[in-house]
Amino acid sequence: MEANIFQDNEVGVYLTSSTDNRFVHNNLINNTDNVSIDRSLEGSSSDHWDNGYPSGGNYWSKHNGTDYFSGPHQDEAGHDSIADEPHVIDEMNKDRYALMTPFSVQGIPAGLIERAFQLATEN
Predict the structure, then answer these.
(1) Domain extents for the chain?
(2) What does the pLDDT look like over 100-122, one tens digit per residue?
(3) Gap between the Cα atoms of 113 and 62, Å rounded
């Protein structure tokens, strides 16, 4: 799922008996629970919540991350519109590159475009 807005719900995304789903560039805003994973039925849910660096993952309104660093390991100086810490959903699921601002359906946030261009021109 890509470029969706899950907003003001009791549960934003509910998963059951599924695995290997891809959720990238979505906005999860003001949900009581952003993600609920039901493991009571067969199958476990280990899903993909980001598209790697610098594309990023999803915007989580309840993620209180900081953006002091950049780079694939978030250990380089400068901000890049990606949280320095991953957004942990549970022990099997995390968004390694949570976005600091809502994803724009017109494209990747400007900070990510600038960083991708910078990385491409440095080589």
Answers:
(1) 5-122
(2) 999 986 655 555 555 554 555 56
(3) 24
